[in-house]
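User: Just a sanity check before I run the rest of the batch. Below are the structure tokens for the first item. I only need the designed sequence back.
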């Protein structure tokens, strides 16, 4: 079950293969650990047992995320975790980014969706290697899934790894995948209030891409208000206005990616 919504991740697959018998409640390498965590008899109530299980789940995930992060750092790879509600334009932004960076910066992609490999196919068609994780009933990627996907993905030294998370503004906020930053994509068709309604996600992100800005003339979306709401929950949040459709703002996004990736190539980078 998920620590947040209680969903199950059983049946996750990576490129169509059995990813792992996914059980957030247990050590993935030692089936049964969840029962040991739950069954001490010392917790007193179902509520406190649940807290203990959630802490164990996130601690396990954090440990695996650290392994992913070390692995990526060893190759000087700059990794981002793209999070948003479904349809904000993550895959379209990735396709445009891959096309623009061709010959400048190698990009590899991990795609997360509950079902289908359509997004991985869009990425491969754009010219980048991609691995598709299908989470089944799960509503987010976790560090174990991404670690398994990395084993199948050709990662070039000094390149960029883009992880497109399952479309969901809630659960992916809690799960570190080993990325350098979470990037939250908010499209202007979703309403200004989403940062206030889903603050955990906007707090966890370092950068907000405000996408579909080409549609602004047709909407009453208030950009200043949306940015103010986002900064209310995360004063440090960087914001870029973009349109994957028109190309507006893409130069700033690409320049940021290239600068951050170049910094990771420096062996002295933390
Ligand atoms: N007008 C407009 N449509 C966009 C833009 N980016 C994506 N879309 C459209 O939004 C829909 C969802 O895009 P997709 O990339 O699949 O979103 P994802 O679910 O976040 O990966 C598609 O119909 C895209 O063509 C944009 O910048 N402007
Ligand atoms: Mg997508």
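Assistant: Here's the designed sequence for the first item:
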């Amino acid at each position: 079950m998920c620590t947040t919504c209680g969903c199950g991740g059983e049946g996750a697959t990576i490129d169509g293969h059995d990813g792992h018998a996914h059980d957030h409640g247990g050590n993935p390498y030692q089936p049964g650990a969840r029962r040991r965590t739950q069954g001490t008899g010392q917790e007193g109530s179902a509520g406190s047992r649940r807290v203990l299980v959630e802490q164990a789940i996130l601690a396990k995930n954090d440990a695996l995320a650290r392994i992913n992060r070390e692995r990526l750092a060893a190759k000087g790879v700059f990794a981002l975790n793209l999070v948003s509600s479904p349809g904000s334009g993550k895959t379209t932004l990735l396709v445009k980014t891959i096309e623009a960076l061709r010959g400048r910066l190698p990009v590899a992609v991990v795609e997360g969706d509950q079902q289908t490999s359509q997004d991985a196919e869009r990425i491969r068609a754009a010219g980048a290697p991609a691995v598709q994780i299908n989470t089944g009933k799960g509503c987010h990627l976790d560090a174990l899934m991404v670690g398994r996907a990395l084993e199948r993905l050709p990662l070039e030294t000094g390149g960029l790894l883009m992880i497109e998370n399952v479309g969901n503004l809630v659960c992916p906020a809690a799960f570190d995948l080993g990325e350098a930053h979470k990037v939250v994509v908010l499209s202007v068709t979703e309403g200004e209030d989403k940062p206030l309604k889903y603050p955990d996600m906007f707090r966890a992100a370092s950068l907000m891409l405000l996408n579909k800005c080409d549609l602004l003339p047709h909407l009453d979306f208030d950009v200043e208000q949306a940015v103010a709401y986002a900064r209310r929950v995360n004063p440090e949040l960087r914001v870029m206005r973009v349109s994957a459709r028109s190309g507006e703002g893409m130069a700033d996004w690409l320049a940021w990616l290239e600068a951050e990736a170049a910094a990771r190539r420096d062996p002295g980078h933390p």
